[in-house]
Amino acid sequence: xxxxxxxxxxxxxxxxxxxxxxxxxxxxxxxxxxxxxxxxxxxxxxxxxxxxxxxxxxxxxxxxxxxxxxxxxxxxxxxxxxxxxxxxxxxxxxxxxxxxxxxxxxxxxxxxxxxxxxxxxxxxxxxxxxxxxxxxxxxxxxxxxxxxxxxxxxxxxxxxxxxxxxxxxxxxxxxxxxxxxxxxxxxxxx
Length: 190
Prior knowledge:
5 helices, two-stranded antiparallel sheet, Umud Fragment, subunit A, 3 domains, single chain, seven-stranded antiparallel β-sheet
């Protein structure tokens, strides 16, 4: 018996147990038991929860991702001088994506400020919060069409555009049904 991650994803989606229960076709009490008890859950149930929570079945039963805590040993000033002083609260650096619904993308070639090999972590926004992404670099996923990456902007009439990061590139008009994920973290291997 394994504890599921149903609660984790339900909370990330901002859903109550009652709302999830209604969408899955069960009771809030059943959702509560499945979230908190080490029960065996059938694949049928897991598939229903995965569909509603927009995750893979494996995400509901796998262990949560581990975060890496790395000791911080000091600071480097403008002149490159190392100071063996660690500000309070910065004793360790925890590598964890600051995102509610993270997605990642690897940069294949140098483009704009991004270098080949960089990994960008973005946070998929719910459709009602898409305007929070304006003016930011974003991954835009469009069902049935080519997705893209670039600066997410809008016009006075409310049309959304995606401006690729390379200079001179043509902006693309975006349909309203795409998923927008602003970049929240850059990982660069040196």
